[in-house]
Amino acid sequence: MGKQGQYEDSSNSVTEIGEEKKERFSRSGFIFAAIGSAVGLGNMWKFPYITGMYGGAAFFLLFIVCLLAIGLPVLLAELAIGRGGRGSVSTSFIRLSGAKGWGAVGFLSILAPFFILSFYSVVAGWTMHYAVLTFSGRLFSNTDYGGQFNAFIGGWLPVLWQFIAMFLTAFVIIKGVSSGIERFNQIFIPGLVILLIVLMVRALTLDGAGEGVSFFLKPDFSKLNTESALVALGHAFFSLSLGMGAMITYGAYVDKRQSLGAAAIAIGLGDLLYAFLAGLIIFPTTFAFGLEASQGPGLVFVALPAAFAAMPLGTLFGGLFFVLLAFAALTSTVSLLEVPVSFVTEQLGWSRSFSVIIVTAAIFLMGVPSALSVGGAVSGLNFGGKTFFDWFDFVCSNIVLPFGGLMVTIFVGYVWKGAAEESGLTASWFKLWLFMVRYIAPVLVFLVLLYSAGVIHF
Q1: Which of 88, 203, 252, 350 makes the best surface tag, with the fewest CB within 10 Å?
Q2: Structural domains in the chain?
Q3: Quick one: how far is CA 159 from the chain centroid?
Q4: In sequence order, which residues have a C-beta less than 8 Å from that of residue 301 and are 6 or more positions away?
Q5: Residue ranges for the chain with pLDDT beneath 50
């Protein structure tokens, strides 16, 4: 009885503090924004690659299981922390635990998107540059697409396009939660879905597309093993934008009446649909033109332009493809920038506009070495065989994010006493969720951390 009373007092205190944040997502606006955060560039080249490597449809089914069993419970945990704490990531951890030490864990989740955005904005800029190149027809004026790409990344243009990507992102964030983030995603997410469907129809009607569909949807269970399970789990985890503070930050703007469980399911289904449609674009296209889907960025910026040049109305569909990538990139950059902006605004008392300008400028300057390290002026500076871009990507994706996700499961499973009420789950569903967060998710996320960091191999 005493514990229950203590729990209620803590919950009420947090709720009162939370009312200081006046901006809130609408119910649909939050779903759009969260799906926008989850949708990104990785599903256009990483997902096809790992799906083909680990058994096609068999891996896709494994990915679905991991997303439902582990991804959604951790997602719900992050949303609950955000709504319960009603502050930046660091402040939410402190308010809900009563211990300043947890603020350091939250601060790590604030640094993560700061550094991720410094190199992610570089690739976002590439997609915008290629959209302009394609629609103008200049991309197809020279069939040496590898040479074109190398010439582009070898100069200073990537810095300009990185600036444009950051400027557009800042323009959205500076308008606030409802007028900026929500409205932006309510326009861009439906637009992204339309582009996905148009490109999928085009891909499925290509000669030879059937082989690609068969490769994607025909399961090969012989390729499933421990490694493929960890890869599927890792992709399910990262595709939902977990471990980087974005969902905790967005959770702080969610109305108390909104069902977090239903929201988590909607976000997961949106992410799953995007991955599925991406596969139905990439695999039919690559098989129709004899391309290799495991080329990563080379597939998008070198191989696919050759495919678009060979297909009817290739300029149109190629341009739409890169616009699709730009949309996906920007919906992610918006969620990433909001995390440090929320922290700076809260902690330093700066206006949103001033906070956005300072944080954006810092991220842009931090990203210039990454923009110039892929093939530009500082590409020769390698540390341990990795460029600036490679190191930022490796440390953030393989160490910081899994660690952040691991801390979330420990916090909700063992530290925070108010998870039951904030989750809004029924007693039976809460017991299942808490079991997953306490005993299953931490172990599996820890294994992903060890595997991603190269500590264990298979």
Answers
A1: 350
A2: 23-452 (1.10.4160)
A3: 22
A4: 126, 130, 145, 149
A5: 1-21
